[in-house]
Amino acid sequence: MQIPNPAYKICVLIPTYNNDKTLQRVLDGVLQYTKDVIVVNDGSTDTTAQILAQYSQINVLTSPKNLGKGIALQMGFTKAKDFGFDYVITIDSDGQHYPNELPIFFDEIKQSTAPVLLIGSRNMNQDTVPKKSNFGNNFSNFWFKVETGVALSDTQSGYRAYPLNYIPKKFFTSKFEFEIEVIVRTAWNGVAVKNIPIQVLYDPTERVSHFRPFLDFTRISILNTALVTILFVYIKPRNLIQTYRKKSLKQFIKNEILASHDSPKTKALSIALGIFIGLSPFWGFHLALSIGLAMFFKLNKVITFAFSNISIAPMIPFILFASLWIGNKIHPAHIRILSLHQVTFESIKHNLLQYILGSFVLAITGAIAAGLVSYLFFNIKFKKAK
Q: What's the pLDDT tens digit per position in 267-325?
């Protein structure tokens, strides 16, 4: 039975490594639904090559040695793009997935109005599901939510649909952890990642798992550490900057500040935190601090980031002068800064202690003043709105 799809060109990709017990059954099942099949033989040493030789109608890619599932998938993605396919549906060759559920993926893709990455959600509460698989899936789900903000019930299933033109072009990983990297980074690209329910078969007499618990779990943990670091250092700052730049100042104040559903207290604290960071001496770290501290204190990240920009270029000489002047009042130095023209890198170097003391006093004073004024303002606006 062929499932035509006029909207998108879709193929099925099957990476395989030493699964000759189940490979033929999977191939026969898939071919009932589509003739567009790519198989990547990832250095199998069993009878996989002989089985594949019986299927002249499928496209076979062969690696002379085992390179890992991630590399096998990437090889398949490249070939599928060369053939002009828009989507690749991946299905494991170990027999745990049911080919008769391919139409579920076809229908979901046809109904989507925007690019979507689909992951089959298995019933992990079945008696036949190994406990280590259940734990690994819950672990992966937790980190995926941390890294993307999206809650999924299954992030480790290999039964997936990838929108080829919207996934990253280059990857860092090559083994099982690749399947985590690709969904996180695709979500960061603004593509929806969704679960669709599927069935799963775990037959211990047939299934051959190549997952190495200690080594692969270590790889996955290292990957998650790297992804969380990238999230806070690059992705969140990038998203905030894009949000900030897309709107005029008037639009930003109206949409992100006045129309925010946060309480007057939260808005005021977010502004105070932003002002404190912007006036503090942590030059080069203002962006990371504004996002990280706003998340830690559960404040409005956009507002905090916006007000940390008080230290924009035209304001820097005035901030430096005020910091040095205040610092000299607290702890007088031999060289006093009495005018704006005296503010140079050399003067800051010779008055470093005064600058640091003054900048913290200025940051704290400015934060308190901004927080109190904005709290009163938001309270008045809130009462008028009632």
A: 999 999 999 999 998 887 887 788 888 888 989 888 888 888 888 777 888 888 888 88
Nearest-angstrom CA–CA distance, 21 and 47: 9
Quote the domain boundaries for residue 161. 10-233
CA distance 310 to 322: 14
* Cα–Cα distance for residue pair 53/20, rounded to 1 Å: 13
- Encode pLDDT of 41-84 as tens digits: 999 999 999 999 999 999 999 999 999 999 999 999 999 999 99
pLDDT greater than 60 at residue 206:
no
The C-alpha atoms of residue 162 and residue 365 are separated, in whole angstroms, by 52
Are both 278 and 208 inside the same structural domain?
no
Cα torsion 118, 120, 125, 131 to 10°: value is: -90
Q: Which residues of 81-114 are buried (b: 16+ CB within 10 A; e: fewer)?
A: eeeebbbbbbbbbbbbbbbebbebbbeebeebee
Element (H, E) at 215: helix 213-230
Evaluate whether residue 213 is within a structural domain: yes
Structure tokens at 208: 């051959």
